[in-house]
Batch of 3 targets.
Target 1
Amino acid sequence: MSLSPEELRELARFVLLTKPDEIGCDDWLGYAPSYAEMVAARQPVPEPLRKAAEHLDVCPECAEEFRALLAALTEDAAG
Amino acid sequence: MTERTNEVWLQSLGGSGAADETAVAELREVLRRGLRRALAGRAAADDGFIEDMTQEGVLKVLDGLVTFRGDSRFTSWAITVAVRVAFTELRRARWRDVSLDRLVEDAPARLPTATPADDPSQDARQTILAVMHGVIETGLTDRQRQALVAELRGMPQAEIAAQMGLTRNALYKLTHDARQSLKRGLEAAGISGDEVRVTFDL
Ligand SMILES: [Zn+2]
């Protein structure tokens, strides 16, 4: 198996964002509701939650789900 | 619809024995509305799909009540759970017939080689690519390599996990370890993050 230049570039991007203490997708799900509520209400986000949300930078799928969640909660807040 | 507090939700959905049917019906409505908003504009998410995901979402929420941390509204958490159920299904439907082995084997172009040697930025690029290739070929386990490449080729994590017999968290750990090996490989070769950023225009 060999990677195309585009795939290697994408991989390089993920490697740069890699941190030793990242959380996984299942763990992120525990933080997502409160983080989404704060973002939807434009409230300041406390540091631990902001750190957990870094998962969204390295995980396109959780990021996609989060945008959808935010759409659901934002409209909810607006009535 | 009455505004239930988190405590009331938890109590009526599973506090003591069977769930209260009125509460389950309300939960179903919360998820249906949430999913409609979350999936608005997606062709694959028609009424039938929303209905199916609402049902599955209800089951998943009832099943996972103990995992609710209580640091958000209960309904926000329930919608989060349902959104994951729905996206997992949307992605799986698109990738169900793709074999991970085939996807990973089907190599596109090999690493481009001949580039003008007098262009220093191309030299740096070649060096970084060579280090990355070296780590991928010899510094990763077969499973790490498989998962990483499948992910890069767009296969959803739920599908990779299913085909590899892993939980999503276990898969994440596998690819995270692989990315860390790559990072260490670059560092060991004396290549800084800034260099990578500049070279790949990231
Ligand atoms: Zn994730």
Note: The longest helix of chain B spans residues 74-95.
Target 2
Amino acid sequence: MGSHQNDSVSKHDQSHLDIHHKIAHQKELKQHIVSFAMMIFLTMLSFIAVASEAISTRFAILFILVLAGIQAAFQLYIWMHLSHKGHQYPTWGIFFGIGVAATCVAAGAAMIW
Amino acid sequence: MSAHAQKKKNPIWDWLTTVDHKKIGILYLATGAFFFLLGGLEAILIRIQLLYPENNFVGAQTFNELLTMHGTTMIFLAAMPLVFGFFNAIVPLQIGARDVAFPFVNSLGYWLFTAGGIMLNLGWFLGGSPDAGWTGYAPLSTTSPGNGVDFYVLGLQISGIGTLIGGINFLVTIVNMRAPGMTFMRMPLFTWTTFITSGLILFAFPALTIGLALLMLDRLFGTQFFAAEAGGNPIIYEHLFWIFGHPEVYILILPAFGIFSEVIPVMAKKRLFGYSAMVFATALIGFLGFMVWVHHMFTVGLGPIANSIFAVATMLIAVPTGVKIFNWLFTMWGGKVVFTTANLWAVGFIPSFVLGGMTGVMLSVPPADYQYHDSYFVVAHFHYVIVGGVVFGLFAGMYYWWPKIFGRMLNETLGKIHFWLFFIGFHLTFFPQHFLGLMGMPRRVYTYLSGQELETANFVSSIGAFLMGVATIVMLWNIIQTSVAGKKASNDPWDARTLEWAISSPPPEYNFAQTPLVRGLDAFWLEKRAGNKTMTPAEPLDDIHMPDSSILPFMMAVGLFIAALSAIYSSWAIAIGGLVLTFAMMFLRSVIDYHGYHIHKEDLPSEGVDGK
Ligand SMILES: [Cu+2]
């Protein structure tokens, strides 16, 4: 609920907090650059998988699906800040939803004749 | 209560436009009660038909329609809104909130549900009701002639949207609107079960939406999703229906569990035994509820591996359910138990529901299920859990919360007569059906032959149903009599434990003049033990912001209703008109600013103790 309890901190604490914010911010900037590069790299890989004659179609489909999963994780955690504080409910919702949907799809694929 | 002089509104307009969760709760309860009576009437007609062998009270076709509508009405139009009625009437009070998170959406949910409920019942007047069973299995439902099943498909679709947004609303409300100090592990169990139930609604209803959408495409637009002769697959419908259908059972029973967990401690003057185990069991039941749906499909022929996996998962659910049963028993153990009517329902629930649970475990064994499947044994089983569990829970909640919701006490003597007649009638009706099933009587068949030893049990079963009917008349008399000449209810008639009892009965429209500070589980009980008459406020007295009422939700539901009804009769121009109406209302909602209004602190009754 109320996560902003530091509105009455002293000047000293404030500058202290600022430094922490700066460090956290720089760390995040680095994460963003790395993930941006990774995402472009993964996208290139999937294009190569489709274009290349050496890779079979079956494998290419599976491979791209796995890459898509990784991309979705990057998107959610790095760009949509799911890892930040206060996102537990969306996280729970998303993963429970994925779980239910995956169970149903897997069951459907395995059991429907 | 006329301290703040608001201009007097036309009462009908007021009810159509209200966004107050307490009024919406009453609307849900009233609509649910109406459909409960309707579904009960259908049940009585069914039992009259089955009173004697080869009876011809209603024909086979009418019987199919009665049976379909009895199931659909009781699940979707009676139990669901009654559950939502209690969510609305009680949960915001229990968490110390002034309203739900989205009052407008709340009202929209109610009106969509009502539009769907009316649509479902139109068949009675328009040449034939749905007749493919409450499950609406394809291809029976896709090939059923007439418009009956169309009413089923579109009615359920519209009311399903209402339920879904209602569930989302309560998730957000419970996450965001709890009073200061009310951590998750200090929430009353009814709030907990509401929370888990809302999660189940969020994840289960989309499967129904998809199933119904495909059914609609097959019936109205000539697709062949479920037509085996055209390469479709009817088994997909069964999967989709039960992926929704099994969680739906828990959507109904968990709130009932929550009600019992409120009533039993209050009436035993003890705190709930094993609170955290109760919370964990509720969450576990909700979680496991998603991986057992195939137990409804053991005889489809999915193979021994699939059947075994789902059988074991089903049996697992007996564990957390057993934990709950024992916790209720231990709560009563050593308590000063008062047998008020509410508590009678709670105590009567335990043996009844355990019986239903036992037959549930029997049904979860696939080889045995081949014997029980589609027989009266199944009918007995699910009525034991749904009537013995859900309906008893709703009655317990009704007698317990009636004073809070309506400000008047129900008559306890009439209440006890209601309980005993209903309890005896219930067991008379459904206990013999176990044996009818074991003797081979199939469910959903409009008659049976004489000389097969099915007569006595069927006769007893029908007499039991009539007794339940008489019990319901006693309940209605109780409601009418006490609303005319009933005793006014005090704030806290049961010496209860949770926040809703700290405010007046019925609560003022803003619920809490000052948001209460919660210092532990059973917050109000703690304050009472500390010698306080009311909750300690968490904030100074200030102006209270209230949401504006709005006619838009009602109009949106009307638009969808028109669209669906015209689509059934292929009047596409009117159907598009209905959709345009709905979207126009959505547009208005987006562009008009609703600022709400304030109740000024000078206008609040002094002391805010009991709103007098
Ligand atoms: Cu089930």
Note: The longest helix of chain A spans residues 11-51.
Target 3
Amino acid sequence: MKIAITSTGNTLESTIDPRFGRCAYFVVFDTESKSTEFIPNPNKEAEEGAGPAAVQLVASRNANKIVSGEFGMKIKSLLDSLKIQMIVIKDPEKKISEIIAMLNH
Amino acid sequence: MSPRITRLRKVLNPPVIAGFKPYGPDAAKQNSEPIFLLYEEYEALRLCDYDMYNHHQASGIMGVSRPTFTRIYSVTRQKIAKAFVEGRQISIEGGKVYFDSDWYRCKNCDCFFNNTEREKEISACPLCNSPQVIGFDYDNTISEFEPALNDDICLCPHCGFEHSHEKGKPCVQHVCPKCNTLMKRKGIHKCTTTKVY
Ligand SMILES: [Zn+2]
Ligand SMILES: [Zn+2]
Ligand SMILES: [Zn+2]
């Protein structure tokens, strides 16, 4: 299973990015192969449409869960319709490595 | 028909398309006024005739009374029949609905998550696998996440002036300080008036 996490940087020591649509990087973690891929967010600076574009990117990588700090109303219903699970972590200090360790439970 | 007070109805999944167009040699000659199908009507049809729930179950899922459900459902059938018979487009849009899934909170790692499979029970946290999960009312606590919900802003329809809404005072009683127009609530209530065909 693939899980996307929004990240402030491109290392495992980076912290979770609380913004979903305008995060710096998406980390795609594969629970089977244990591999991680860092994808720079092309819509980071977009004036509008960053949220739906981020949903599309996550969906194109076949992620079925997404970990971030918040999801707006519109994004919530978009992800609901795609049956992509939203996981909200409100601690902005949480590191990507810590989240991956939790997912490896 | 007398106006009705409609309340929010749950729609679990928005439709995957915006509507339907008729085709065929005479399609263009037919009445071009589309039939507007509301989201809740689409949902009623989906629950009854696609997921095969009975009216009692479907009304529970949508959070409306059984008679209300039956009314929505029969309007839906009439609209679709009218579109088919008269060769009209169907446009699926608006209505007083919101898309919804159930939310949970993990007591162990303190994360929040939704359940994408309504039919299945949540038994463990998707992050830390702890079984210590409890139901969580995301919508009523959403202000924690999004303090600037449009809902709480009054907007002048004339000059676009905005100010934050005063609790307990209807927006239409506010007068715009710039142009003296009556103000209204800004935001998500873009629902068009329901036309019942
Ligand atoms: Zn947990
Ligand atoms: Zn004004
Ligand atoms: Zn107001």
Note: Residues 66-86 of chain B form the longest helix (21 residues).
